[in-house]
Write a structure and sequence with these properties.
This protein has about 260 residues and is an alpha+beta fold. The protein folds into two domains: about 30-135, no CATH class; about 165-255, no CATH class. It contains eight helices and 15 strands. The strands form two sheets. Strands 1, 2, 3, 4, 5, 6, 7, 8, 11, 12, 13, 14 and 15 form a 13-stranded antiparallel beta sheet that branches. A hairpin with a 4-residue loop joins strand 1 and strand 2 (about 20-25). The longest helix has 16 residues, at about 145-160. It is globular and about 60 Å long. It starts with 10 loop residues before the first strand and ends with a strand. This is Oxalate:formate antiporter. It comes from Bacillus salipaludis.
Amino acid sequence: MKKHHQDIRDLIYVHLNQSDQYVMSYGIEFDEFAAAFSDSLNHLLLLKHRFDDTEFNMHTLLEYCPEDRVKKLAGEDVYGYGDFCWIDFIEEEVLNELTGQEIAELLYLGHLKQHLKLPFYNKLGNRFVYLAHDDGWFNKIYYRSFKDFFHLLSEAISGKVSKLKLEKSLLGLRKKRIYPSVNKEILLSLTPFIKEGICISMKDADQQRTKIEIPIWVIGDFANMDDMYEEYEIISKEPYHAKIIFDKKTKEWKLNVR
């Protein structure tokens, strides 16, 4: 019972696995990821994809997306690719230094979306490993530093809030607002919840004249996003565990934990 693609955009699920350095997520798509790191993403070695504007590396027999084409890739219907998996790297020369064992580990990552050993390679200098199926539906992203994850989450939330039903001004014109990123301190304080798995629901956001309240439910650890969504539909009828609140007057975010 896979939800329609549109549903992906108004619910975020994140579950952080600290020991294996990855986050499972639903609701954050590659174009949002690329926008959050627009000034710092390196070349992407493509393990599973359908992008046609690539370069080819003879040593690994894999295609890659040069840094200057990442924006073009982000504009593609990546969701429609099915599997979309990549690892970033600093420069093409380093691909030629990968051993057979390392190439095997990378192929395993792209094929099974699991690691044989933690997938951070000093010679590649990678910050991420991005493993998605129906991008935005099932994403498993390895982070060398979880600071990057919290940056992505703060950008994704504010981006989604600015796409909520537009408010009407006095003249009846709809005005689009841009919201500031959610403060990292707020999201960091949610870490114990994120380690259990949470839903942040734009579709249940309460828009008031002076503030917007976005409910958060602790929902558990899911690898199957159909099951996660079913659990969300049940738990969303119960009181929230926390709320992030945007104060329209001070233009600041606050956290309210029950």
